[in-house]
Amino acid sequence: MTQHHKLIFTMAIAALCAGCEGNGPSTQEGAVAGGTLGAIAGGILGHNSRGGNTLGGAVIGGIAGAMAGGAIGNAADHQNGTIYGSEQAATTTVYVQQPPNPPMPPPQPEVIVAQPSPDAIYIPGYWYFDGAQYVWINGHWEIPPPGYRHYVGAHWAWRGGNYVYIRGYWHY
What is the pLDDT of residues 85-101, one digit of tens each? Predict the structure, then answer.
């Protein structure tokens, strides 16, 4: 492997890992699975193309696959109510000078189904900020993780001259 190929490979791994930072388990699994499948498909396409650039195709396919898989996994994390046990764990890397205003709530009122357990707490629907836009997350029931009793909804917090987005999390 040449120095050039090692550099491309290292950058691809760094991009894949950076995309997983601070996200839930489905985001990470989606990024890894998407990156693997993308690298395989890209390597095959690169190998069969004019010039036979298997490594280049694998790197590009891996990066594209990781981004797509991570995005799909991230949506699953938010639909599944990924558990964060502290504000620190729920803090994202999204910093802004001024938080963007969320859209208006969806026109349909929330339909709250029966409480599935006496221990379940209802988490009302909210706008989740994914770093580029707001995405609506429907309200749902959750049973607090062992040892936790209260849910803190997603919000923006002032930190050292900027706002940072903090996902919803559980605390004692």
Answer: 889 989 999 999 999 99
